[in-house]
Amino acid sequence: NYQNNSYCAFEFAEDSPLARHTASEYAGVTKNPTFNLRTISTIGNYDYNFLYKFYLDGTFEVSVRAAGFIQGAYYNEETGSPFGYRINKVLSGSFHDHVLNFKADFDIAGQKNRVTNTALKSTNFTFPWDPETVYSTKSKERSVVEDETYLNWADAGGVLLIESAEQNNTWNNPKAYRVIFPGGDARRIAQNTKTIGVNAEWANHDLTFTKQKDTEVFSSHVFDAQDLQDPIVNFGSYVD
């Protein structure tokens, strides 16, 4: 039986405090309850557990966990070893990718938003209070992503912000969300495969930044697998 459009909403006490500090005369701690929204999609062998977690400080986290039955293949002594692990006499747990795509359309203090990258760079600097000494230190180097583009985490080299292009806070810093990636690969490993053409361009990179267009709603289509070279939704055409 299938239960369509089913979600579970619950509060959860995280195992780390939202804030904590010990001073000379007191110790203070703030609990860290989160609001969670969870749903499960069964696709083939796997149950994908989607979790949207909202924190009190305004941050939110999106995660997916896969459960279910292993997708196996026939084990061949000559060709099976590099491409999986033997788990039975003639059964191999073959390597494969699970790549998912999320679209986030931000409106931070209005619709005029931009992407910036702030990296810490090594530099030599002479401070006015010590004009005779050159200090080896670090300073921030900020750049704006001007064009629609693909990006991998290893190439970012700094702090990625989705920020307002018009409004700053009290201390003249832009109102923004920081983009944080927990680690690992967010893209498929195999490139230029014969079984996947241009119908899954969204899986080739960790991040894609595009301008909002009403005609670019989805990154894929349920029938994209039927035409590898001319899919109904070609995500590669979004980056122009």
Percentage of residues assigned to helices: under 10%
State the separation between the terminal residues, measured CA to CA.
Answer: 44 Å
Task: Specify the structural class.
Answer: mainly beta
Average pLDDT confidence is: 89
Overall shape: it is globular
- Strand order across the largest sheet: 1-4-5-6
H/E topology pattern: EEEEEEEEEEEEHEEE
Tell me the radius of gyration: 23 Å
Biggest pleated-sheet summary: 4 strands, antiparallel
Number of strands: 15
Helical region count?
Answer: 1
Share in β-strands:
35-45%
Uncertain stretches: none
Give a description of the structure.
This protein is mainly β and 240 residues long. The chain is 2% helix and 41% strand. The protein has 1 helix and 15 strands. It has one helix at residues 153-156; strands at residues 8-13, 19-22, 27-30, 33-43, 46-54, 60-68, 73-74, 84-86, 91-94, 113-125, 135-145, 149-151, 159-168, 174-179, 207-209. The strands form 5 sheets. A 4-stranded antiparallel β-sheet has the order 1-4-5-6, with no helix packed on it. Strands 11-10-13-14 form a 4-stranded antiparallel β-sheet, with no helix packed on it. The relative contact order is 0.10.
Summarize it.
The protein has 240 residues and is an all-beta fold. The chain contains one helix and 15 strands, in the order E-E-E-E-E-E-E-E-E-E-E-E-H-E-E-E.
Write the layout of secondary structure elements.
Blueprint: E1 8-13, E2 19-22, E3 27-30, E4 33-43, E5 46-54, E6 60-68, E7 73-74, E8 84-86, E9 91-94, E10 113-125, E11 135-145, E12 149-151, H1 153-156, E13 159-168, E14 174-179, E15 207-209
Antiparallel strand pairs: 1-4, 2-3, 4-5, 5-6, 7-9, 8-9, 10-11, 10-13, 12-15, 13-14
